[in-house]
Design goal:
transferase; about 40% helix; Aspartate Aminotransferase, domain 1; binds pyridoxal-5'-phosphate; EC 2.6.1.87; Aspartate Aminotransferase, domain 2; aminotransferase; dTDP-4-amino-4,6-dideoxygalactose transaminase activity; alpha/beta; PyrdxlP-dep_Trfase
Length: about 375
């Protein structure tokens, strides 16, 4: 079976882990963590980057930083991963779901303003497939209404909006290094702090609510409990692994883009025949080839398509179950307006295998995809 994801190793991960081990430095915020922070800050232009255990953890930190109180509202798409909502629900906040755009599957920025109430505190744009949301419009709405913008850039490392790296545009940005993402450490993530007003408190929340980071920099002579917080920093072993990946980020992105572009060219013809719709990347967005997906005509065709590929030894997957339709989403969330695109597109989307090394299987995958897509059209 050709898997839909296969984690890529650069070859230096174990060597760096061995170095961390030899240095006797295993807890967080050691030399490798600092290298990762410096890389992220240089790469994204963020004021401060902080490694976390996951993007979920970075979103939870953002929810604490935004000072969300029970009943506060956070506007986000329903078409996203559960963590986008969970992080805020943990603070007692209410996710308010608005529809997505039909082209990029990102939050429809023209629907945000009407969803704002006096309880609204934040907007969480999710950059689906590493393709940017309309950040100029979103930032303008947020400034006019005094809202915090937290980018869920879990899929967005090495992508940009009008030349600005994803995660570096909102007040805060959250990245993921989960093994299904482009740059990985098994589990892993980072919080990007762009609004300098959040920087000091972000360090404190990440270190169990203490000023331990300032103590280690010699800025205070003892450290103590000064705020709420948790343990959000990963071990040096994780950072060592991650740094090896960061060093190869350009190569990884280039190779993924080559695979993505080749799928895209191959499927132009079946799109012209009306059998599928290919991903849309607006001209002002540069993307990282996080995923290649196709939109089939309907739910039933998608089921047959996935089954046909499976018979050919190819794994393809779908996601997401819109959060407003999930049991927890129905209990804790609220929907604003119609979610027509969300429900329609989530029934029709399928993701194809995209990983470094899949190229040798690509001709076979392309052939099977074209056959399965045209089969659906015939039936
Ligand atoms: C992967 C993902 C997350 C969660 O990332 P973790 O690092 O696994 O916590 C959150 N949001 C989106 C959009 C994702 O794709």
């Amino acid at each position: 079976m050709i898997p839909f994801n296969k984690p890529y190793m650069t070859g230096r991960e174990l060597w760096y882990i061995a170095q961390a081990h030899a240095a006797g430095q295993l807890a967080g915020d050691g030399a490798f963590t600092l290298k990762c922070h410096a890389w992220l800050e240089a790469r994204t232009g963020a004021h401060k980057a902080l490694l976390t255990h996951s993007c979920t953890a970075a979103l939870e930190m953002a929810a604490v930083l935004a000072n969300l109180q029970p009943g506060d509202e956070v506007i986000m798409p329903s078409y996203t991963f559960v963590s986008t909502a969970n992080a805020f629900v943990l603070r007692g906040a209410v996710p308010v779901f608005v529809d997505i755009r039909a082209d990029t599957l990102n939050i429809d920025e023209t629907r945000i303003e009407a969803a704002i109430t006096e309880r609204t505190r934040a907007i969480v744009p999710v950059h689906y497939a590493g393709v940017a949301c309309e950040m100029d419009t979103i930032m303008d709405i947020a400034r006019r209404h005094g809202l915090v913008v937290i980018e869920d850039a879990a899929q967005g490392i090495m992508s940009a909006y009008k030349g600005r790296p994803l995660g570096s545009i909102g007040d805060l940005g959250a990245l993921s290094f989960h093994e299904t993402k482009n740059i990985i450490s098994g589990e892993g993530g980072a919080l990007l702090v762009n609004n300098t007003g959040f920087a000091e408190r972000a360090e404190i929340i990440r270190e169990k609510g203490t000023n331990r980071a300032r103590f280690f920099r010699g800025q205070v002579d003892k450290y103590t409990w000064i705020d709420v917080g948790s343990s959000y920093l990963p071990s040096e072993l994780v950072a060592a692994f991650l740094y090896a990946q960061m060093e190869e980020a350009e190569t990884i992105t280039r190779q993924r883009l080559a695979t993505w572009n080749s799928y895209h060219q191959w499927f132009a013809e079946i799109e012209n025949k009306g059998a599928v719709r290919r991903p849309v990347v607006p001209a002002h967005c540069s993307h990282n080839a996080h995923m290649y997906y196709l939109l089939l005509p309907g739910l039933e065709q998608r089921g047959t398509f996935i089954e046909e590929l499976r018979k050919n030894g190819i794994q393809s997957v779908f996601h997401y179950v819109p959060l407003d339709r999930a049991p927890c989403g129905q209990r804790v969330g609220r929907v604003h307006g119609e979610l027509t695109n969300t429900w329609d597109l989530s029934d029709r989307l399928v993701r194809l295998p995209l990983w470094i090394g899949v190229d040798e299987h690509q001709p076979g995958i392309v052939q099977a995809v074209i056959a399965a897509a045209l089969l659906k059209q015939a039936s």
